[in-house]
Design goal:
It is built from four helices and no strands. By secondary structure, the chain is an all-alpha fold.
Length: 95
Amino acid sequence: MCPVNVSDMRSLEFPVKHTMIYLFRTYDNGIINICMTFFYLLTVSELVGQRKNRFLLKCNLLDNLFSLDNLLLVCVSCECFCVFMLLSKFFDERN
């Protein structure tokens, strides 16, 4: 994950802010923020924060998924399934 510093955040906010200025025909930051809220538009810093949180959550889930306990559980359940399939084939052949 590439870190985004404050100057990068400001340079990404600039075109968004000026697009809002053009769309809503105002230079007032308060009005622009209200319009962005009503149209469910997030600022760049909010979007970066959301993506960072989502990435960290997925990394944490992957770490938990591939932990030793979960792998053993998957292997045991897979072996039980394989034994069940072999027994069912054996009994099907006998009948």
